[in-house]
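Hi there,

I know you've been waiting on this one. I reran it after we fixed the sequence typo, so this is the corrected version. Both the input and the resulting structure follow.
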Amino acid sequence: MKKKFRIPLAYQILVGLILGIIVGAIFYGNPHIETYLQPLGTIFLNMIKMIVVPIIVSSLIVGVAGTGDLKQLGKLGGKTMIYFQIVSLVAIIVGLSAANIFKPGEGVDMSQLTKTDINSYVGTAESKSNETFMDVLVGIVPSNVIQSMANADMLAVIFFSVVFGLGVAAVGERGKPVLAFFQGTADAMFWVTNFIMKFAPIGVFGLIGVTVSKFGLSSLIPLGKLMILVYATMIFFVVVVLGGIAKMVGSSIFAIIKELKEELILAYSTSSSESVLPKLMEKMEKFGSPKDIVAFVVPTGYSFNLDGSTLYQALAAIFIAQMYGIDLSIMEQVTLVLVLMITSNGIAGVPGVSFVVLLATLGTVGIPLEGLAFIAGVDRLLDMGRTVVNVLGNALATVVMSKWEGRFRTETGKKPLESVEKMA
């Protein structure tokens, strides 16, 4: 029997991306094209958002109940948070270094730049900048878990799922029907994920078509230096920093990229890490990380391990300072690093997260907030790149934690010979 020819999903998404760029370029400046294309992207993203919470809840409960050990879970959580903070700090330093070395903001003719309205982010930024560490801590514990699920408040959802999973494990035999229910839910939701992914090329076509029709190519020229530097720095970070970490634990960043090629194209096209979360968890489990580690590390990383976003925020802050001719001292840049580290934690669910963080941060070192209005127009195109880095950073984190715990599986299902106990 002849095998039926089928185009791989990665190529289908790529075709959707190219067609969207072509259609967007043809209808550049035509406001009516958004009426027809935006719904395609919105429906696809809504379908993904629809399944994110059920997958995280069911996977975490199954993973935690399977572990059933509060001490082991606390140990994993502690290691994970230390790793996230170290890598985020490195990302900020890489972003600052690139901006200081290449000085993308110097010589920019601000009269050529178009200002974009950023008022929609200001209120959110003000509320976030007034939050204390204790406010963030209190927000992790939900008063109403259903409301937290409806608002996609991931930290609160993760907290509830972990505690519920420990409860299921604690009641022993009586918890087995509950565990079977959530295992069935997780399996069913991954089937739904695969079904929804068939619509990814259409969603990508709509989203990228709208983006190109709005901005065109001419609007990118004044900010071209910034865009080139952001992408070059992100490539450096992926190859050198993430690649170096992967090599340290006996893995390869290029093997991870190959495994996630469909998800990375989708993340780039949609500018949404959320759009690939279900498949990312499935793929990293297939890659060799245990279910419970993947179920804990990936959702947590979506709030605390946004390497691409933190790198961009550091670079953009210095770019705006250079644009206004402000020379930041070493101490001011150290202050910027510390404020970015604190502000960027735990607000991944906020729309336009990078803008919100920058709005809440720039004023602390005397950089005019108005400068953000000049780069807002190309933020979507920069967001596409940083989303890919965010996804890769969280994928690598599952491998690092699995190796650190000595539980990573090779293709044969055996643990690798190399030890990473030296990291502990």
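Quick highlight: The CA atoms of residues 83 and 415 lie 22 Å apart.

Best,
R. S.
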